[in-house]
Structure formats: C-alpha cells, structure tokens
Amino acid sequence: MERTTSIALGSVVVAAVVLGLKFLAYLLTGSVALYSDALESIINVAAALAALIALRVAARPADANHPYGHTKAEYFSAVAEGVLIVLAAASIAREAWPVLLHPRPVEAPWAGLLVNVGASALNGVWAAVLLRAGRAARSPALLADGRHILTDVVTSVGVVAGVLLARVTGLSWLDPALALLVAVNILWSGWGLIRESVGGLMDASVDPTTEARIRHAMSEHAEGALEMHDLRTRHAGRLTFIEFHLVVPGEMTVTQAHAICDRLEEALQAETPGAHVTIHVEPQEQAKHHGVLVL
C-alpha cells in the first residue's frame, strides 16, 4: 500500500496545480464554460484528499473489530467523490443558466485557453498513471479518481473547443450552453461512480468473466473431489472473497480432503490475486449434486 498511498498524495498535488491553472484561465477569459471546468477541479482536490485518507485506512491490518480488514474504506472515498461531482454539476448549472439567458462576450480567450490546455495535458498524463496503478493494485479509490480525472480531460477539450467556437462565430450563448452540457456530463460521471461504489459496499459479486475463470480453476484443480456448488463471491476493495462447498467421497479422510482444499486455494489465489478462499467440505451422501464438476 506504500505505492498506492504515494500516488494518492501525488494526486492531491497535481489536482491543486490544475485547479490553480484552470482558475487562472477563467480569470483571463471570463468564460462561464472555463469557470465550470475550474469548479470541477475543486472537486478533484477534494476527491484526491478523500482517496488519500481512504487508502491510509484501507491499509490497516485486520483487527478484533474488523476481522476481514479495512479495505472497503476505499468505496467510501469513491461514493464521496461521486456525491461531490453531482454537487459540482448543480453549481455549474446555477452559474450557467443566467448567462445563457443574458449572454456576455468572451474576452481575450487565447492566453486563458493555452493555460487551460496545459492544465488538461497534465491531467491526462496523471489520469493514465492513476488508472494503471489502480488496475495493478485493484484499488477502487485510485480507479475512481483516475476515471474522474479522465472525464475532466474530455470535458476540458470540449470546453476549449466551445469557447473557440463562441469567439470565432460571435455567438456568445455557446459559452453558457456548453457549460450546461459540461454539467450534464459531470452529473452522469458522478452517478456512475456512486453506482459502482455502492455495488462494492453491498457485496456485489465479481463480474461474469472473472467468475468464469474462477469456475474453470475450481474444476481443473479439484482432482479427487466430485463437484463443487453454492459458489459465492464478493469484492472488498482490492480483496476478493470466494466461498463454495466441495463434495468428496464419503470414505475420503480429512487429510485427503484438506490436501484438495489447499490445492484449490493456491490455484484460486493465483487466478485472482488477493483472493480469500473459504471451502466447506461435505460427503457425497449429503451433497446437493449440482454445481461445478471436476474435470
């Protein structure tokens, strides 16, 4: 977790720099679209701080009150980020609507646009770093932060294009209209983060592709057993919990059944890094006889 915490700290620094650059761009242009872009960067700073705190909590080892660890703390960070994004969208819409009703010209945009483009380029590079590190560490907090920043980059590109169009055509209403579109895009991004993170908090199962790999690994490495059933999976941050029943012949010894369980645990942990495997062994005579067959 040392590396993920360091990356999260870097996110706070990058977000603060980008925030300063984007507000400078807004002050240079007076563009409400650039204001909306800068306002979202405040959310980036808050989200980066939330991710840093969540990762520090998630790194704590299991204890008497939290025997399964603290990894779900990362989901709280992602939910908080989603809520902040939704609030930012509402604030942008409130600022843009009066300007749409009474458009005002965008002044001296060139310097401001260049500053905004530089900030967006920095954001794009950092989003790639976060997404790569988040996938490697299976960190919901880093992935949420990376996706949000990537959305911010896309938004910024649209904002710059819109402000240029407003300047070239003289249609001042394009600036606030684009800001409203930015608000809708941000709102959609925030809802997606909230939905995904709540799924983690509600112990959603792994995706179908991962479950198929788990079932295949089970069937390949259970030699000596008869079948497996009642497979259940859930995510808890970077950890994956896998539980199932293992059916063995009634005359099999405990030592033999334990050896099969050890082999299955090793195979599943190799297939799904960070997996915690719980296996309930039952004799053939009491089995339900449905589930994953042994190859």
From TrEMBL:
Q: Which residues form the Cation efflux protein transmembrane domain?
A: 11-202
Under the GO molecular function aspect, what terms does this record hold?
cadmium ion transmembrane transporter activity; ferrous iron transmembrane transporter activity; zinc efflux antiporter activity
Compartments annotated for it: namely: Cell membrane
- An individual GO BP term: intracellular zinc ion homeostasis
Q: Where is the Cation efflux protein cytoplasmic domain?
A: 207-283
A Pfam family annotated for this UniProt entry: Cation_efflux
Where do transmembrane segments lie in this chain? 7-29, 41-59, 75-93, 113-133, 153-171, 177-194
The topology of this chain with respect to the membrane is: Multi-pass membrane protein
UniProt xrefs under Gene3D superfamilies: Cation efflux protein transmembrane domain, Cation efflux protein, cytoplasmic domain
Instruction: Identify one Gene Ontology CC term for this UniProt entry.
Output: plasma membrane
Q: Which UniProt keywords apply?
A: Cell membrane, Membrane, Transmembrane, Transmembrane helix, Transport
Instruction: Read off the PANTHER family from this record.
Output: MITOCHONDRIAL METAL TRANSPORTER 1-RELATED (PTHR43840)
The UniProt family comment states: Belongs to the cation diffusion facilitator (CDF) transporter (TC 2.A.4) family.
- What protein name is recorded for this chain? Cation diffusion facilitator family transporter
Name its species.
Answer: Deinococcus aerius
